[in-house]
Amino acid sequence: xxxxxxxxxxxxxxxxxxxxxxxxxxxxxxxxxxxxxxxxxxxxxxxxxxxxxxxxxxxxxxxxxxxxxxxxxxxxxxxxxxxxxxxxxxxxxxxxxxxxxxxxxxxxxxxxxxxxxxxxxxxxxxxxxxxxxxxxxxxxxxxxxxxxxxxxxxxxxxxxxxxxxxxxxxxxxxxxxxxxxxxxxxxxxxxxxxxxxxxxxxxxxxxxxxxxxxxxxxxxxxxxxxxxxxxxxxxxxxxxxxxxxxxxxxxxxxxxxxxxxxxxxxxxxxxxxxxxxxxxxxxxxxxxxxxx
Length: 292
Known about the structure:
Elements: H1 6-26, E1 39-41, H2 46-49, H3 53-62, E2 67-70, H4 78-87, E3 91-97, H5 99-104, H6 106-116, E4 120-124, H7 134-155, E5 158-162, E6 170-171, E7 174-175, H8 176-183, E8 190-194, H9 196-199, H10 205-212, E9 216-221, E10 223-224, E11 241-242, H11 251-261, E12 265-268, H12 275-288
Helix pairs in contact: 1-3, 1-12, 4-6, 6-7, 10-11
């Protein structure tokens, strides 16, 4: 039995799969700026996953996605979730966990990531009270270096930190985010660039990619509604997430810089309540981008 809204979901999914079939054919052309199909972050469809995991995975596959970053097990065990994605030909390349689990349940996190088939373990955010301080950042740096080393040496996993905006507080001539990158060991700590949460606090995502290059392994593709002003809070209305190409971020410039940086996985993440419309729009937008 379909959960509420799933019939509409599948209708849009079938429409999108037609888009994606044409996308793959046309992707053979060198004229496309972004020839590959992106992945998807499970958080995009969290409201559907919370109700029915198998049906939502069917929708993910129907939309053309075969690469997923899970931010939650949605009540399943890692083996159960792995079986469900295997049945649908979907690969989990990255597994997002909380900071607390990363630090205090490292073995469980690693085992779940390995079971899912993920190569990356991702943390988004770090403990802080109000405005992020240097002391709070230093504590995170120490934890990232220590646990990142365990994940790499004992489990063959790569740790990535996902920015959330508040890390870009000014510090000396740069930002606390710059301090984070500089003070973490490249052998054990890599990064996932969320382009909205870089742009929102006043950064240029393309310039960050140029600056730190191959420290970045993963990317969240999203866009910020026009007219919205950012800050260092790390928070904004979820409906300020809009379809790619309709907001404030220069997506083509970001993609060009990301290609040079060697980004391994691109994921669409849409936090809005309008994903049934906006995700197909984002795919269509990426499909239409041409090299200039």
